[in-house]
Amino acid sequence: MNRWPLPSPMHLALDAAREAAAAGEVPVGAVIVKGDRVIAVAGNATRLPPDPTGHAELRAIRLAAEALGDERLTGCDLYVTLEPCAMCAGAIAHARIARLYYGAADPKGGAVEHGARVFDQAQCLHRPEVYSGMGEAEAADLLRGFFRERR
Question: What is the pLDDT of residues 41-99, one digit of tens each?
Fold first, then answer.
């Protein structure tokens, strides 16, 4: 059961994750908002074009930076359906995202509350506020279903 009520940005992130799955991508979606304004929505896109950095978070950060005309996304919040990996956590810190909300935990590849715990490192330049478990059940179900179909 979800610990948080689902705000509309997380609904949009889940929709982006579903779209990614329909395209054969791992179902992860991300949304960046500033205040009440949605700045960017993206799903995973690592297969087409082939891009190992095509994670939903990085794609959303790129879109938001372009939309705002600034590499610093100060005052922006990121909603993502899965705990970010080390690469994405590093980009979140560099972009100066204010708050990170994520759904499903990722004990194998996550790097926020698992693994490298990027934001806990002394070398981390910026630490966003982190809120986990938002949309967790639905995000985890999407991921389990996606991988079950491929086994």
Answer: 999 999 988 999 999 999 999 999 999 999 999 999 999 999 999 999 999 999 999 99
Q: Per the omega criterion (within 30 degrees of 0), is the bond before 5 cis?
A: no
- Token readout for 55 is 């994670």
Whole-number Å distance between alpha carbons of 18 and 33: 20
What is the rounded distance in angstroms from the CA atom of residue 58 to the CA atom of residue 136?
A: 20
Q: Choose the catalytic residue: 19, 25, 57, 136.
A: 57
Dihedrals φ, ψ of 149, to 5°?
Answer: -65, -25
Query: Is 57 an active-site residue?
Result: yes
How does DSSP assign the chain, residue by residue? --SS---HHHHHHHHHHHHHHHTTS---EEEEEETTEEEEEEE--STTTT-TT--HHHHHHHHHHHHHT-S--TTEEEEEEE---HHHHHHHHHHT-SEEEEEE--TTT--SSSTT-GGGSTT-S---EEEE-TTHHHHHHHHHHHHHHH-
